[in-house]
């Protein structure tokens, strides 16, 4: 099964429902991957407006 990115929050997962926001609008057309370990102390997480640790796509089409 291929990985897909949520079009709402950009979290990357292999399921059919986003584990972060529970949306079903997932896309397999995404680019870039950022792994957030510490969402509170990460400048990248703040720039992406991410509040949970996980794997996120930079761009989702």
Distance between the termini: 19 Å
Q: What top-tier CATH class fits best?
A: Mainly Beta
Spans of at least 5 consecutive residues with low confidence: none
Which strand-content bin applies to the residues?
25-35%
- Return the CATH topology: Rubrerythrin, domain 2
Shape: globular
What is the quaternary state of this protein? single chain
Average predicted confidence as pLDDT: 95
Largest sheet: 3 strands, antiparallel
Total DSSP helices: 1
Tell me the structural class: mainly beta
How many strands? 5
> What percent of the residues sit in helical stretches (DSSP H or I)?
under 10%
| SSE pattern, N- to C-terminal | EEEEHE
Which CATH architecture is right?
Single Sheet
In order across it, which strands form the biggest sheet?
A: 2-1-3
In total, the number of domains comes to 1
Q: C-alpha Rg, in Å?
A: 11 Å
């Amino acid at each position: 099964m291929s990985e897909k990115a949520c079009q709402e929050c950009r979290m990357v997962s292999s399921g059919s429902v986003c584990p972060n926001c529970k949306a079903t609008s997932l896309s397999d057309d995404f680019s870039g991957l950022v792994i957030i370990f510490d969402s509170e102390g990460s400048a990248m997480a703040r720039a992406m407006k991410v509040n949970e640790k996980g794997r996120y796509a930079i761009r989702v089409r």
